[in-house]
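Minutes, project check-in
Item: structure for the 509-residue chain
Input as provided by the requester:
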Amino acid sequence: MFYLVRTLIRIKLLTFRSLYYFLQSLLKDGFNLLALLRYVYKTYPGAVALNVADKEFTYQQLYYACHHIAYTLQEEFSLQKKNRVAVLCKNHQICVQSIIALSALGVDIYLLNAEMGSTQLAKIIQQHTFDLVIYDAEKENDVQQPAITRKVSVSALMKLTEKYSVKKEYSVSKKIKPVKAGKVIVLTGGSSGNYKTAARNASILNFSHPLAELLTKLKIYAYRSVYIATPVYHGYGFSALVTSMVLGKKIFLREKISAHEAATLIQKNKIEVLILVPVVLQRLLDVDADVFKSVQCILSGGAPIDRLLVMRTIETAGDKLYNLYGSSEAGFSILATPEDLRQHPDSIGKPIYGVEVKIINNGQKVSDHETGMIFIRCNWTADNHAQQWVETGDLGFKNQKGYIFLKGRQDNMIVSGGENVYPEEVESILCQHEQILQASVIGVADELYGQRLKVFAVKKDHADLSADVLMEWLRNKVARYQMPGQIVFVETIPMLETGKVNTQELLKY
């Protein structure tokens, strides 16, 4: 926290006036996201908070709307501190308002993947008992489960809120007791369909070091508008939302739009900051290179970014790309700046202030350029693991200058004929072929080798390429044990909204 305060003073964002508003907000609303909203609307009077479905809401309007929803949830569902509430919503106004309102009540908030089906939801329900589920109307059938005893759709919640509404726009219905925010729990492991949870406190303390890095290295405070093109139910999207709110930015959110619509949105509104996953960045580049004219800062995260995409972005948009590495368990912890990416386009950068990284193989710390498991230690890890080493599940190595490079996920590693194969390496090489647009590699059972590689590849438009020709081309570029047993051409690689390959869908081909 001291590092953040020092940073805010240095860039002249922390004044006696803003400090007064911050303390006043804590006393009135407690240590939660509602207090944060009050602080922001006092500090930035009249500032627009959200642009959702082409409707705009100021921070002041958002504050009172969230207060009404919090009181409604308290009265209608008797929600109390430490209750468990699941939010099963996409990126829209009520989703954001519900999260902030729940924080004001001190409940533990579970941000569920809005793309999950009823079977996956049932697994989560078996693991956790929810006191309430807030859901989008399209998920009506999925929440019809005996284990879900109390639920409310976002439309029904808005109707209930009308009972407690007041005539004056900027006033509250009744007081809510100031409380400390509960935990925010996000899901991990969605690409395989086996979801796990990672919890962290919704406290500004958990964002202090990452926020300070974003302020000093990205100078994000200098920009006005932010488009968050990743789901807020994902740890990356939620962190982006809170960080943007802290700085009083105009936040653009959309439930789901095409790359063409996103490009139009960016150009029409001259959006300055893009927060997205690599697959969205690639699609925007495919649509129109001019989309980045107004953009001053591109933050890529949530999934690994290919070096070819990095180089293409730099060539098209200039030195605007930042690669953020983190995990649901460890949070944002490693950053590659545009300068870093020009030197090492395949690196995830260096640890940010307050983060320690070590790479372990067979229980021993490895030397430079040796691959092992990446462990992270910092004060803002999930599940109260502060100052404990967190295993990220990612394999990588560090060079002599301290830059870190990913090799892939440990659970994605394929052991073929006794050799370790990292799918990401083969995918990157395949994408260097002039007729290949995208590729994904998985391991399939094999009697002789234990596992063999299976390639799913998307050809560029009008490409004339056979699997045999591609196999022969690849043979001269990879080791024998990296050669796939089969190449299958598909029209598209199924992706999750979080930017990761949907392995469950891929296996259906």
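Outcome recorded: The chain has 16 helices and 25 strands.
No further action items on this chain.
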